[in-house]
Amino acid sequence: MLPRLLRDATTHAHAADTVEAWASLADVYSTVYWLAARHRWMDMAELAVTRQRWAVEQRANPLGDAIAARDRAGAYLNGGDFEGGLTIVDRAVAQAQTSLSGQQRAFAVGVLNLRGMTLAGRLKD
């Protein structure tokens, strides 16, 4: 089901070329990342976060940037690079605080802080 969903979402994003269409494709890649990470298919998880980032970059989308950063930091978590993941989270929180407002800002900072707490909890110090 995923290959067809990815194909359809990619085709739609290219055809519509809107923030919403590219954000939808990024959401599909986020789901692929989640599924791959849960099944420990790490190559697929890495590819999913890379493609998610690409989709978000097609049209300016600060909330999408924050979600993509959360998933990228999750890939670092899965790989055991907790400090690297925290660096991504810190940068993304700072970016979200300057580029978002209201509920979107609260949501973005919240999900990033949750990922950051998980990463920080794994540090030896």
Q: Give the H and E element order.
A: HHHHHH
Strand content of the residues, in percent? under 5%
Residue share in helix? over 70%
What is the arithmetic mean of pLDDT? Answer: 96
E-strand count:
0
How does this structure look, described?
- This protein is mostly helical.
- The mean pLDDT is 96.
What is this structure's SSE topology?
Layout: H1 2-16, H2 19-38, H3 42-57, H4 62-79, H5 82-99, H6 102-122
Helix pairs in contact: 1-2, 2-3, 2-4, 3-4, 4-5, 4-6, 5-6
Describe the structure in brief.
The protein is an all-alpha fold. Helix content is 86%, strand content 0%.
For the structure shown, list the relevant keywords.
6 helices, mainly alpha, 125 residues
